[in-house]
Amino acid sequence: MKKLFIFFMLGTFGTFYSQEVPKVLKTSFSKEALQQKLENEEGKSITMQEILNQHKGKVVVIDFWAGWCRDCLKALPKAQELEKNNPNIDFVFLSLERSKEGFDKSLERFDMKDKDNYWFASGWKNDFNNYIDLNWIPRYMVIDQKSAIAKYYAISPEDPEIQATINKLLQ
After folding, report:
1. What share of the chain is helix, strand, coil (3-state, %, to 5)?
2. The pLDDT of residue 1
3. By three-state DSSP, how is residue 123 classified?
4. Could you give phi then psi for residue 122, rounded to 5 degrees?
5. pLDDT, tens digit, for every residue of 110-159?
6. Which domains does the chain have, with CATH numbers?
7. Could you tell me which residues are beta bridge partners of residue 62?
8. Which DSSP category does 122 fall into?
């Protein structure tokens, strides 16, 4: 009986706490998602639309992460390698830290200060994250030169579809 209970609990929590591929892989953002406000390192408010506009004409990889996220920290060296191997691609880092202080500390601690960083001051649940079905981090997206979603869902920087999507967009 004890083994059955443990098996049930592992199955329940394993399902509850694991990433689940969204049923619909979106190719564009809603107006509400694009109006979502984030904050930059200086604490200035900026919308997701404004962030994408800064990178118009470029391929962008969006990396959702947080300094408290063990999976994110394990993926960080591979994410840095992806960035290093793609110098013509813009990388945008969206933090899900719980506070501005946590955001600032993580940027310093993980040597992220020289990157394009923003954080969701509104918290995890917001129009942008809800629209893209963000249910776990790390998460990676590839955005094309016209700000459309080219790769909607990847949970590792080592996902071969990320590089394949980048390569296809650069042809």
Report:
1. 40, 20, 40
2. 55
3. coil
4. -75, -10
5. 999 999 999 999 999 999 999 999 999 999 999 999 999 999 999 999 99
6. 22-169 (3.40.30.10)
7. 92, 141
8. T
Q: Do 63 and 137 contact (CB within 8 A), yes or no?
A: no
Alpha helices in the chain (DSSP H): 2-16, 31-34, 48-54, 70-85, 100-109, 127-131, 160-169
Residue 138: cis peptide before it, omega within 30 degrees of 0: yes
Q: pTM for this one?
A: 0.87
Give the SS3 label for residue 38. Answer: strand
Rounded to whole angstroms, what are the CA distances from 80 to 39, 72, 88, 165?
22, 12, 14, 18
The CA-atom distances, in angstroms, between 63 and each of 96, 148, 156, 165 are: 11, 16, 10, 15
Please give the average per-residue pLDDT across 161-170, as a whole number. Answer: 97
- Both tokens of 28, joined, read 């564009």
